[in-house]
Amino acid sequence: MPQLDVSTFLPQIFWLVITFTALFLIMWKIAVPGIANTLETRQKRIEDNLDKATQAKQEAEETLAAYEASMGEARTEAQGIHAEAAKGLSDEADARGAELSENLSGKISESEAEIRRAVEAAMDSVRDIATEVAGDALERLTGQPADDKALSGAVDRALKADG
Amino acid sequence: MAAGHSPLAQFEIKRWVPIEIGNVDVSFTNSSTFMVLTVIATSAFLILGMRRNALVPGRWQSMVELSYIFIANLVKDTVGSEGRPYFPFIFTVFMFVLVGNLFGMVPYGFTFTSHIIVTFTMAFVVFIGVTIIAIAKHKMHFFTFFMPPGVPMIMAPLLIPIEIISYLSRPISLSVRLFANMLAGHTLLKVFAGFVISLGMFGVFPLAFVVALTGLEIVIALLQAFVFTILTCLYLNDALHLH
Fold first, then answer.
1. Does the distance separating the beta carbons of B96 and A8 come in below 8 Å?
2. Distance, in angstroms, between A28 CA and closest chain B CA?
3. Cα A106 from Cα A112, distance rounded (Å)
4. d(CA B49, CA B47)
5. Interface membership of A41 toward B (CB under 8 Å)
C-alpha cells in the first residue's frame, strides 16, 4: 500500500505545508476580504435602497393626505356654492311663479267678466232678434202690425220657459 | 494482474523532481503537483470569479459567493460570532480538501487526500491549533473539559481517561475518515474499471456501475470536504466554549 511507504511522508508533509500556507495566505489577504467587501457593499446598497423606498413611500403618503384634505375642502366649498345657487334659483323661480299665477288669475277673472258681459249682450240681442222675428212673422201671418207690448211679453215668457 | 494495474497503483507517489535539502527528501511529486494545482485552481476560482465585483452576480460570482456564504453560515451556526477570526482558515480547509477531492475525480488525476499522511497532518494541525486556542482562552480551566459538569466524583476515574482518549483520538478519526473514504472510493472505481475489459461483452455492466459510482464519488468528495470542515468547526467550538 503506497500510503504506508514512510519514505514518501516527508516530501508530502513539506509540500502540504507550503501549498496549504500559500492558499491560506491568498485566502486571508486577497480572496476573503474581496468577497466580504462585495457582499457588504451589496447589503449596504440594498439597505440604502430600502430606506429610500420607505422614505419615498412616506412622502407619497403625506402628499396623498394633503391632496385628500384639499379635495375635501374643495368639495365642501363646492357643495356650499351649489346649495346657495340652488336656493337662489328656487327663490327666484318661486317669486316668478307667484307673480305669474297672480297675473294669470287676474287675467282669468277679467276674461270671465268679459265673457259674462258678452253672454249678457248676446242674450239681450237674442231677445231683440226674437221679438223682431216674431213681430215680422206675425205681421206676415196676420197682415197687421203686432202689438209690441204683447209680443215682448210672449218672447220673455218663451225665453223663460226655454230657460 | 500486472503491477501497474493494481487498484492501489494509482496511489503511488512518483518523484517527478527529486529535491533534497540537507538530508531531507522534499522531492516534487505527483502529490505535490496536485496540491499546487489545487492552490492555483482555488485561488483562480475565488479571485477571478470576483474580478467583475458585480452588484448582481453572474453564474461564476454566484458560485464563489455561495461557497463563501455556505462556510460563513457553517462557522456562525457551529461556533458563533467568536468564530469569525478563524473563518479564513476554515474556508481554506474546506476549499483545499474539496478541490483536492474533485481533482482526484479527473481521469489520470492524483488524489492527495487519499494519503493518510496528508489528511493526518491537516487533522493534527487542527487538533494542535484548537488545543492551543483552548488553553490560551481558558488557562487551567481547560482541563475541566475532561470532567463534564454534573457527573458524580466517583465516576471520575473512569470518565476522565475516556474523555482524554476520545479527545486525543480526534485527529485520528478526522484524518482516517477522509483518507479511508477517498481510498475506498478510488480503489472500488479502479477494481470495477478493470472488470470492464476483462469481461468482454458483459463489460457494459461494470461500466454502468463505474458511471454510477463516479457520480457517488463526486458526492462523497463534496460530503467529506464538508464533514472535515464541520468537525473542524465543532472542535473549535469546543475549544472556545468548552462544554
1. no
2. 5
3. 10
4. 5
5. yes
Q: How far apart are CA B60 and CA B40, in angstroms?
A: 16
Give residue A148's pLDDT.
77
**pLDDT reported for residue A153:** 82
Q: For chain B, which residues make up each domain, given as ranges?
A: 3-241
* Other Cβ atoms within 10 Å of B238 Cβ, number: 17
Tell me whether residues A23 and B11 touch, CB distance under 8 A: no
Mean pLDDT of B2-14: 77
Mean pLDDT of chain B: 91
Q: What are phi and psi of B28, to 5 degrees?
A: -85, 110
Q: Where are the domains of chain A?
A: 10-36+70-162
Interface membership of A163 toward B (CB under 8 Å): no
When CB atoms are compared, the residue of B9, B117, B179 closest to A13 is: B117
Between the alpha carbon of residue B30 and those of residues A102, B18, B183, B207, the distances in Å are 127, 11, 16, 27
Whole-structure pTM value: 0.75
Averaged pLDDT for residues B11-22: 90
Cβ–Cβ under 8 Å, residues B201 and B219: no
Cβ–Cβ below 8 Å for A16 and B114: no
Which residue in the set B25, B47, B55 is minimally distant from A42, CB to CB?
B55
Residue B29 is classified by DSSP as E
Per-residue buried b or exposed e for B176-199, using 16+ beta carbons within 10 Å of the residue's own CB: bbbbebbbebbbbbbebbbebeee
Which tens digit of pLDDT belongs to each residue from B139-153?
Answer: 888 888 888 888 888
Residue A26 near chain B (CB below 8 Å): yes
Asked if A16 lies within 8 A of B35 by C-beta distance, the reply is yes
* pLDDT, average across residues B105-125: 94
* Interval A42-51 mean pLDDT: 94
Q: How many residues does chain B have?
A: 243
Q: What is the pLDDT of residues B188-227, one digit of tens each?
A: 999 998 888 888 888 889 999 999 999 999 999 999 999 9
Cell of A59: 412622502
Q: What is the per-residue pLDDT for A163?
A: 58
